Amino acid sequence: MNHRLKELQGFGVVIGGILLIVPGIMLTLGWSQAFYIINDEPEINGVDALKKSWHMMDGHKMDLLILWLRFIPWFLLCLLTLGLGFLYVGPWAYTTFAKYYDRISGNINSGEMEIIDHLIE
User: Fold this and answer.
1) What is the DSSP letter of 83?
2) 11, 22 in Cβ contact below 8 A?
3) How far is CA 50 from CA 25, 27, 46, 61, 115, in A?
4) Tell me: the pLDDT tens digits for 26-64?
């Protein structure tokens, strides 16, 4: 009986951890554009930037998650180069994420839009 209790407790801990991780990822995705918004609108406060980011990301969270996941193999390769690869991949990733913000905020021309759309697909 004691063995089953430990299994049940372990199962509960795993499920609880998952339930905390998934909402955390959703919040991170929803609030991810706040720094870009503050950069574009310096007069806005932090709470309003988070709200605007949340509304801006409606319908775009999965796209951004896919974009983030596409960089994971590159980051792993950077670890194999003892971090030297981050000198190239870091700026590339940050530029891509900034262009993604331009895409969803409407601050991008059609040629750049095709490049970002290609990365997301």
Assistant:
1) T
2) no
3) 15, 10, 6, 14, 27
4) 999 999 999 999 999 999 988 899 999 999 999 999 999
